[in-house]
Sequence to fold (316 residues):
Amino acid sequence: MSQSLYLNTSELIPELPHMATYLLVFLIGLTAASSSAVRQHWTRLIHYGRKSQKQIEKSKLAEIVASKDSTEPRLLDKYQIMKQFDKDTWQRQAYDAFAAKLGNKERIFPCIYASKGWKDNDLIYMFLPSEDISERTNVLSVARAILAYVPSSHEYGLNTSLVVLTPNSKKGRTVEDYHTLFWQFLKSLRQLDPKPWPPNISDECESNRWCMCFNGKPAFLAVLTPAHEKRKSRYLQNFCFVYQPRWVFELLLTSPAKREAVLKNVRGLIDKYDYPLVHSPDISNFGDENCSEAWEYFIYDENRQARSPWPTLLAP
Fold:
């Protein structure tokens, strides 16, 4: 048999110095091809160390539950609020202002699903004792509220959300100040999270696959502040944020065509509500290219991006 039919392995296998170079190039290419996944893996590894997931979940749940006491804010519906709080209390005044905004028939609030949720009593409310939502006691209270609310949220109605209201501190905070408070709160909540995020959700805040999650369940948030002057759709006399389980969107927006139609409608309503200010270009659908929900939760008084201060909420 001719020798030409045999492979010359000495010609196929590079010499040792060249092999190291080829291996290095291969690893760089592999990292570049999956840089997002690699970064997420190392970020989580640095944050959690070598603890098992069960150890992490047990220790974080213990921390969340341990600080609960008799002053814990209760989860209430609108009828319970009206029964429990007199009209001269800050809690009732904050709720009344929120209700007036969503229930205004002459000036339609852009999020029509939120308005319907208020009307149908699908919304659940909690009142924090201070405006600084990034305080540890407030973060723990919200964490416990989410753990209690989300598993039973389907029972409240199709347009349910958890509405968190705070007293007015009268500190004269700016929109930027509230933006900082909100993201400090989200970061603390993320680092308290007992469960890993779903695999289809990115840890990187600039990703179009990022959204806030807690206890393994994704959510959408929207912030309203007393400092917003131009963007009336994001104004409320009390600092407030709304925590909406993502299953609400999944049931309401069942197709790409439905999502696009709703998005167009919401943008149009925002343009009318905030006139002469037009809607923020960051109002988009989850997963849209060149977008991130991190830019949408807190929207500035003018059309500029309100980005996360950190690339990931697991950052030190």
Observations:
- The chain has eleven helices and five strands.
